[in-house]
Amino acid sequence: MQSKTATLVAVVVYDGVTLFELGVATEIFGTDHSQTLGVPWYRFAVCGAAKTVTADGGLRLQAPHGLRHLARADTVIVPPCESPAPIAKDVLAALGRAHRRGARLISLCTGALVLAQAGLLDERRATTHWSDCERLAQHRSVTVDPSVLYIDDGDILTSAGSAASIDLCLHVVRTDYGADIANRVARLLVVPPHRDGGQAQYIDAPMSTPDTLDLFGDTIAWMRRHLDDQITIDQLAQRAAMSPRTFARRFHATTGTTPYRWLLRQRVQHAQTLLETTDLPVEQIAQHSGLSDATNLRKHFNRVLRVSPQTYRRAFRSRTDNTAAS
Q1: Looking at the predicted structure, is the pLDDT value of residue 322 above 60?
Q2: Burial class of 62 by CB neighbour count within 10 A (0 to 12, 13 to 18, 19+)
Q3: pTM
Q4: Which domains does the chain have, with CATH numbers?
């Protein structure tokens, strides 16, 4: 829990800083909620290497405090940067000094790439926006988890894409002040205090299909059309005129995964589509997707997407219905 003396939260800004995540940090930590919530709130400072920076979209922002202010911060927030240029060395050095001094570091969305540039995610588990997880994984000492909304690794916390910044910041408030205060902040923001599942349910990750002009490509296209069939490696290899071992080897070389995992992911994706676009019961969706029954569907849905089919349907079917009604 927070002490009676409010802690200092500093957010670092630089050219290319994105406004959404900066706004999230400012709204949650930079708005004085002390009167509304009845507790001393955070002190907040915007810091930068330059007095003004150009945010994404061309908006010019003032940074009232320099990087030296990070030396007094209890928590340092690192927002994303859309600029293709590397972050300035003095910013990376200031982040390193703050961490060594014991400050808590929080990256929002692709701000994790900034922490990685500073070498602060070495031997750490971290996440970022799903579309940039491969970039983060290029820092080979970082263990990247693309499926979660955020990761609390003690003194360094990282969030997934954009809106997951809200999830992480509310988690920080919950850690500092407890669940009641965090829930009240969530109500002020008109957002849920906790979202079910992780980032995996939002990932748009279509599986590539090889050229169907040969028997191998035609076999994979056939798999897509027969997701509700019981399919074996021997059956697939026979269709492709290969031995089972040769088929499995070529399949992995072409798709980067095994036939079983590829088929499972296709079946889960098909179930996602049916949950979004139909009113079919979960039992029937399981059968149409080749996952046999509702129990099996729930097991694989939770394992792949970290959310239940019903929760997924409530979130994404309501979005489809609202879009159609508007």
Answers
A1: no
A2: exposed
A3: 0.67
A4: 8-200 (3.40.50.880), 215-325 (1.10.10.60)
